[in-house]
Design goal:
- The chain folds into 3 domains: 2-108, no CATH class; 122-234, no CATH class; 244-507, Leucine-rich repeat, LRR (right-handed beta-alpha superhelix).
- It contains 17 helices and 20 strands.
- It has helices at residues 2-9, 28-38, 52-61, 79-83, 103-108, 122-131, 142-147, 153-163, 168-179, 189-196, 208-224, 240-249, 328-331, 403-406, 450-459, 477-486, 504-507; strands at 16-23, 66-73, 94-98, 229-232, 235-237, 254-258, 269-273, 288-293, 314-319, 325-326, 342-346, 348-351, 365-369, 372-374, 388-392, 395-397, 413-417, 441-445, 464-467, 489-490.
- Helix 6 crosses helix 8 (153-163).
């Protein structure tokens, strides 16, 4: 609703509207990035983010009126300190609209006017429900189902879309569930669990591309039923009410644990944010582990902690420390995860730990984000089954940053964005072994993903994006031509001498006469 208000007001009352989803655990760095992008603020050399004082100065300099929507706020915070949004008495041309389910937040954040949104009337609720479903043969169940949505728009839309086109027996079953206090979205919980459990939902599909397509189809279906919402820039989100219901559906198998609370036994999926870990943890049924560490310099984990995690298939490991932390005892235990298929590591220093990944026989997806990656000269390994490799915002210390790709003979999808490496050290090194003949999807750039996302918004999702810039002299000429020829977005800019010849005639041929402009 807040987003629709912004769309309605942009161009009339306000020259620009910026919409931000704050949520329960706000990521202020990401939110500042969204503000900066909307204000056309660029990162300066060597900076990872736009500081709040730059945002503040930019907003103060605006001549047009600005509306900033802070949606789904759960906690008090200072918009000036955290986001660079000036207070009203300093910038009258900047207005803030806050949406929250907690009235106390409005008081604490000094809101000048509170607007209470009541539940929809029965008539409006029925009208909204009918807008999102078909009900010609289900008129008997319809009013009672709408009544149990309690006038909440997001619930009405989600239930209506879930029942759209379904036979009468499904409507009657949904009504029985609602009347008996069962979860509202039980009719669609298989889809919800399917996305959460990843590719296992699709049976024994061996083809990576086919499984990827099925995952995207499932996400599209969830978007269509409003169980997921489009957050823009290739992201999705879940409304907090739907999120609570999803946790209720999976309460026996799914848990979110923050700080020192002990997880339940027998879990399949666990989100765990803590710095202290027990010597032993009953993870015998655990398949998905999302593990966030607070601000630590170093981490020590007992070997016995992982003893029972034989079924683990998905592991996201992220540190919120200011600098990359080292955890040799943690990574030495990785080789015990013989069934792991997806591994994402964020903000860690991986010193002499890379070769251990070669001991994971079923690893198919590997993602490094904000990591220090050091590979010793004699350290050789192969990721035989790897189909997806993501390397973003990393500091790579190797003879050539594409050495990791050389270890992946069956790679089908590659993300290589905004990584740092010592250009002087690798000046005369070209990667001859990095083969891309199996590659079908890629985003390769020295810069971030934002420029590609701008094209996505104009043209829809694109599979192959290539902005080589300073990477030109690191890639074998034949490989460079292959990537350039197959790219859907090709950005050739930069400066300095490269080892490539003029590629334009080889990239685009028109009637065997070369490229036309």
């Amino acid at each position: 609703m807040a987003k629709e208000v912004g769309v309605e007001l942009e161009g009339s009352t306000f020259g620009k509207v910026i919409f931000l989803v704050v949520s329960k655990l706000p990521d202020f760095k990401k939110l500042r990035g969204e503000i900066a992008r909307n204000l056309d603020l660029k990162l300066e050399n060597g900076m990872e983010e736009v500081p709040h004082h730059k945002i503040l100065a930019k907003i103060k300099a605006l001549k047009e009126k600005l509306l900033i929507v802070l949606d789904d706020v759960w906690m008090e915070f200072d918009p000036t300190k955290e986001l660079g949004i000036p207070p009203p008495h300093l910038q009258k041309g900047c207005t803030i609209l806050i949406t929250t389910r907690i009235e106390e937040i409005c008081t604490k954040m000094d809101c000048q006017r509170n607007i209470h949104l009541d539940a929809l009337t029965d008539k409006d609720a029925l009208s909204l429900f009918l807008k999102h479903t078909t009900s010609s043969s289900n008129l008997e169940s319809l009013p009672l189902i709408v009544e149990h949505c309690h006038g909440v728009p997001v619930v009405i839309v989600a239930v209506a879309r879930s029942l759209k086109g379904r036979p009468s027996r499904v409507w009657k079953e949904a009504l029985r569930n609602l009347q008996s206090g069962e979860p509202i979205f039980k009719v669609r919980d298989d889809d919800l669990k399917g996305v959460y459990e990843g590719m296992d939902h699709f049976g024994e599909v061996d083809n990576y591309n086919e499984r990827r397509r099925k995952v995207l189809d499932a996400i599209a279906e969830l978007l269509g039923s409003s169980l997921l919402l489009d957050a823009g820039r290739e992201c999705v989100k879940m409304h907090d009410l739907v999120h609570e219901v999803a946790l209720l559906i999976g309460e026996k198998d799914v848990q979110s644990v923050i700080e020192s609370k002990q997880p339940k036994k027998g879990l399949q999926c666990l989100f765990w944010k803590s710095n202290s870990f027990p010597r032993y943890f009953d993870g015998r049924n655990l398949e998905v582990l999302l593990w966030v560490l607070d601000d630590l310099e170093d981490l020590e984990v007992h070997d016995t902690f992982f003893t029972e995690m034989k079924k683990l298939k998905v592991w996201f490991l992220w540190s919120e420390a200011l600098y990359q932390i080292s955890a040799p005892s943690l990574f030495s235990s990785i080789q015990s995860f013989q069934n792991i298929q997806t591994l994402k590591i964020g903000n860690f220093a991986l010193c002499d730990s890379i070769s251990m990944l070669g001991r994971l026989p079923n690893l198919e997806s590997l993602w490094f984000d904000h990591c220090l990656i050091i590979k010793s000269p004699g350290e050789n390994f192969e990721l035989e089954k790897l189909r997806f490799l993501g390397i973003e915002n990393c500091d790579i210390n190797m003879s050539n940053p594409f050495e990791l790709i050389e270890a992946c003979p069956k790679l089908e999808e590659l993300t290589f964005l905004r990584n740092l490496y010592d250009e002087k050290e690798i000046e005369n090194t070209i990667s001859h072994k990095a083969s891309f003949h199996t590659l079908q999807i890629y985003q390769i750039s020295c810069d971030g993903q934002d420029e590609f996302l701008d094209y996505f918004e104009q043209c829809g999702p694109l599979s192959r994006c290539f902005k080589p810039r300073h990477l030109r002299h690191l890639i074998f000429e034949a490989t460079f031509k292959q990537l350039a020829k197959t790219a859907e977005v090709l950005i050739l800019d930069g400066y300095g001498e490269t080892k490539q010849k003029n590629l334009i005639p080889d990239i685009v041929l028109v009637n065997n006469r070369g490229m036309t402009t």
